[in-house]
Amino acid sequence: MPLNLPDKLPAIELLKEENIFVIDNSRASQQDIRPLKIAILNLMPLKITTETDLIRLLSNTPLQLEVSFMKLKSHTSKNTPIEHMMTFYKDFETMKKEKYDGMIITGAPVEQMDYEEVNYWDEITEIFDWTRTHVTSTLYICWAAQAGLYHHYGVPKYPLYKKMFGVFAHTPNDILNPIFRGFDDIFYVPHSRHTEIRKEDIEKVSELEILSESDDAGVYLVMGKNGREFYVTGHSEYSPLTLDEEYKRDLAKGLDIEMPCNYYRDDNPKNTPLVRWRGHANLLFSNWLNYFVYQETPYNIDDIR
């Protein structure tokens, strides 16, 4: 089944070029199927890029999804045209009375700030609380994962002495958990962050379970509320060239940035990246949608509690 997306969303044409099956609202309205309602709170600066990355992964499922994009009223994006935001995004205030089968909250470029210093902290924590009564399962990514763990469970973050930057090997802790259906014993994930959460802090919280770790990148995947919350510290959704673009951008700014680890062929930035995370990324999103959204959400969406 395809994704049901807003008419004229730029990602539609971009993904059609990759032979990914998506349809717009006009065509989807003719299909007699109750789609899963998925909300995406996109906090990344380059919103069209992030939309495309996420939709690419969400499309790899036989389920029909109706995707809605949420924005914060307390924050204005500086890197995305206002026309795009007005056309495709809605304020949380206009969406808060609705219920959703699943939700994705992305990372944000504010990780080196204290949480309470972020100018939209009050609004986003209201959204975090709202998900617990209005969403069947929520996927928190990167900064959102750290922020969600801090807000819900008091798990702190710590600065790293250097940026966690590259593609790292990870292992599942509980291979029988449905989120790992089809996974190999070792899988790879891109990371790009200046802060971390620590295992010993999470283990103090009985409601949380660490599902996956990396010897190099630390805690990767944490589950809360029996699958109603997933906290993902890496960027499984990244496209092949995202780390390359970040690296070259920071070099151009004169920042002290090391080459991303385990990323370029022969560790030579003149070579193309060696992509080793797409299989895992597709499984992560399709397993989440199938086992923790579709299998758990009520047919009557208003019954979500």
TrEMBL record:
- One of its Pfam families is HTS
Q: Which residues bind substrate?
A: 163, 192, 249
Source organism superkingdom: Bacteria
Q: Where is this site: Important for acyl-CoA specificity?
A: 111
The Enzyme Commission number assigned here is 2.3.1.31
Q: Signal sequence: where?
A: none
Indicate where this protein resides in the cell.
Cytoplasm
Gene3D superfamilies noted in UniProt: 3.40.50.880
Q: Where is this site: Important for substrate specificity?
A: 192
**InterPro entries from the entry?**
Class_I_gatase-like, HST_MetA, MetA_family
Transmembrane segment boundaries: none
Pathway as given in its UniProt record:
Amino-acid biosynthesis; L-methionine biosynthesis via de novo pathway; O-acetyl-L-homoserine from L-homoserine: step 1/1
In the UniProt record, does the keyword Transmembrane helix occur?
no
Q: SUPFAM superfamilies recorded for this chain?
A: Class I glutamine amidotransferase-like (SSF52317)
Name the catalysed reactions: L-homoserine + acetyl-CoA = O-acetyl-L-homoserine + CoA
PANTHER family per record: HOMOSERINE O-SUCCINYLTRANSFERASE (PTHR20919:SF0)
Job description of the protein: Transfers an acetyl group from acetyl-CoA to L-homoserine, forming acetyl-L-homoserine.
**HAMAP family assigned to the protein according to its UniProt record, in alphabetical order:** MetA_acyltransf
Entry similarity comment = Belongs to the MetA family.
What protein name applies here? Answer: Homoserine O-acetyltransferase
